[in-house]
Amino acid sequence: MSSASSRPTASSPSGSPDATPDANAAPILALDAVTKRFGGLPAVDDLSFAVRPGEVLGIIGPNGAGKSTLIGLIGGALAPTSGVITYAGRAIADLPPHRRAHLGIARTFQIAQPFVGLDVRDNVIVGALFGRRGLRRPEAARVADEVLERVHLTHKAMLKGDQLTVADRKRLEMARALATNPRLLLLDEVMAGLTPTEVAQAVELIRAINRDGVTVLVVEHIMRAIKGVSDRILVLHHGRKIAEDLPDEVLADPKVIEAYLGERYARQRAAEREGAATSAATGAATSAADADTDAAEEPEWKGGLA
Amino acid sequence: MATHAPARDPLAGTGAAGVRRESREWLWSLLAGVAILAAIALVPLSGDDAALSLWTLIVMFCVLAQGWNFIGGYAGYAAFGNVVFFGIGAEAVALTLLNGGPFWLGLLLGTLAAGLFAFLLGLPVLRLRGHYFAIATLGIAEALGELVAAKAIGGPGGEVSLTPPDLDFHIANTLFFYGFLALSLLTLLGTAWLARSRFGVALVAIRENEEAAEALGIPTFWYKVGAFVLSALPTALAGGLYAYWFLSLQPTGEGGVFDVGYSVSMVLMTFLGGAGTIVGPLIGGIIIEYLVQTTTVAFGDIHGQLLGALIILVTIFLPQGLIRLERELTVSPAGVKLSYTRRFTEGVRRVQRFIASNGI
Questions:
Q1: Is the pLDDT of residue A52 over 90?
Q2: In total, how many domains does chain A have?
Q3: A141 plus A272 within the same structural domain
Q4: Same domain, A98 and A194
Q5: CB < 8 Å to A77, chain B
Q6: Would you call B15 an interface residue with chain A, using a CB distance cutoff of 8 Å?
Q7: SS3 readout for chain B
Q8: Which of A140, A161, A181 represents a domain boundary (last residue)?
Q9: How many CB pairs under 8 A join A and B?
């Protein structure tokens, strides 16, 4: 399943000597002891990991684990409180987002951020005009049409950004990011809210993008999808890394199950206790509080663990 | 591995059609703008001095709205202090003339000073967004006006009376009229250039979603500074022309060259005509300034209230301007060929939806 093994990109990182011991190739992206605090609260806490060129790294974690913060740190929307972020052998933590885009880092937003007044095609053209390629108008339009074809949005090219369904907005996010011609693509929950068919399409698309030599970092909630697409998976919990390994290893890791799925098991036990008509006030309260936020993801979890 | 489904593509080739339609719209907007200015250019032929000064004022306000359109319409930043550039342009001409310098030097110095001021002011204030930006720019304009008044350039309170140009009164006024008209044409051409350039695309992207624009590789901050400087240039030139045309200036108070009323007019005119469009500010400027001048005569005391009502109606019913209303009414939906009547009824439906979606 996860045999899309890491292959080096055509464009190798510009002379980076700092190869991590566990990787054959020099990492395209490396975080070293990165911390981001909001107020006193750490959203990402002393996080270190490396991404090899050509790899698909999945990142999972419960709500509030720091996944989107991490995307913001790598994409440049957020500045780390401390730590070093290295991309292609170059420290980038001080660069503004547009400079990182020029270097080849593209991101999508968890909540889609279309240019609402522009049509879908113009949305994508902006990416081609200003991204890593910085194309002129006619070529940018051609690239935009290719990319729209690729994400199956061609027939909606003339709609405005705010006339799209949730699924199409996610496609547009992908299309815009792809149009910049990235070397490193950061996908922030592009599969959340999609139907199983759409998820399958998205997985296929991510694989195809990766085959073209783009390194991909996939932040996701949907276990089945991320397991299918990732070479390795990193698990975040309260902003800390609690596991980083091959997908099957990670999902079997007792630490991950305990930290990540523990709440759910606790709720199940609470429900059982309630059924037995014993006092389960605390458990029931937790269950009620979490039910609405997590209920939607439940089937995915079961699917993923089955 | 599922291969890509063959793209369902009932509107194959709409991409190219879209580009053609866009080009056509661009050309029509530009031609409409030139035609409007050409029609106004005939005013002096009437030989009516009252009409001449009325239309001189109208064209001047058109220039102010066109200048504001760069930062407010394209970049979407609600600059409420653009009158400051008008004031700088006017004071530069006044100072130059008072010191015996030539008029053109005053215009040049005023334009350079306003551009530089926009750049330096933009560095801090363009890091602010929304209301904070609007308030900061508003404050700067007020502060600079008070500063000029306190420094008392010219007479007490900064009042200045200039010697009129050494020309026949009627000829001088005609020249000033054509000066403003040329400036408006130049700004129109500049806007048309902007609308097709990378710069313009970047500004629109910033307006529609700044965070996404930055993430896609647009150096948003510097483009905003550029738009701010660009909006300062025609505004300052208009101020310079105004100073030598009107001859008596005061910095603050109603009608003063730093009066925030000018800023409000720029915003209102641009929004009425269509913010972020090539010809919108011209249309808005003509309608509003014409109404202001005629209602002042016809209704005297209540013209302020009438204008207030107009502002309310515009913001409620036309937040996107007359130009876009026209487009909703007449342009067929993407790639679909319709008869004109069908197009119009479809358009009315879309206008209703459009209005409903603008929060009434």
A1: yes
A2: 3
A3: no
A4: yes
A5: 211, 214-215
A6: yes
A7: CCCCCCCCCCCCCHHHHHHHHHHHHHHHHHHHHHHHHHHHCCHHHHCCHHHHHHHHHHHHHHHHHHHHHHHHHHCCCCCCCCHHHHHHHHHHHHHHHHCCCCHHHHHHHHHHHHHHHHHHHHHHHCCCCHHHHHHHHHHHHHHHHHHHHHHCCCCHHHCEECCCCCCCHHHHHHHHHHHHHHHHHHHHHHHHHHHHCHHHHHHHHHHHCHHHHHHCCCCHHHHHHHHHHHHHHHHHHHHHHHHHHHCEECCCCCCCCCCHHHHHHHHHHHHHHCCCCCCHHHHHHHHHHHHHHHHHHHHHHHHHHHHHHHHHHHHHHCCCHHHHHHHHHHCCCCCCCCCHHHHHHHHHHHHHHHHHCCCC
A8: A181
A9: 112
Are residues B203 and B170 part of one domain? yes
Q: Are residues B137 and B277 in the same domain?
A: yes
Q: What angle do CA A240, A103, A178 make, to 5 degrees?
A: 85
CA distance B157 to chain A (A): 46
The proportion of chain B whose per-residue pLDDT surpasses 70, expressed as a percent, equals 84
Contact B217 A96 (CB under 8 A): no
Chain B residue with minimum CA distance to A123: B205
Place of tokens 């705010």: A162
Q: Which domain holds residue A269?
A: 256-295
How many domains would you assign to chain B?
2
Of all residues in chain B, the percent with pLDDT exceeding 90 is 54
pLDDT tens track for A142-201: 999 999 999 999 999 988 887 888 889 999 999 999 999 999 999 999 988 888 888 888
User: pTM of the full predicted structure?
Assistant: 0.82
pLDDT reading at A69 higher than 70: yes
A69, A198: one domain: yes
Task: Between B165 and A257, name the one with better pLDDT.
Answer: B165
Q: What is the pLDDT of residues B37-91, one digit of tens each?
A: 999 999 999 888 899 999 999 999 999 999 999 999 999 998 989 999 999 999 9
Same domain, yes or no, for A120 and A139? Answer: yes
The reported pLDDT for the residue numbered B334 is: 52
Pair A62, A256: CB distance under 8 Å: no
Question: The CATH number of the domain where B292 resides is what?
Answer: 1.10.3470
pLDDT digits (tens, 9 = 90+) for A86-95: 999 999 999 9
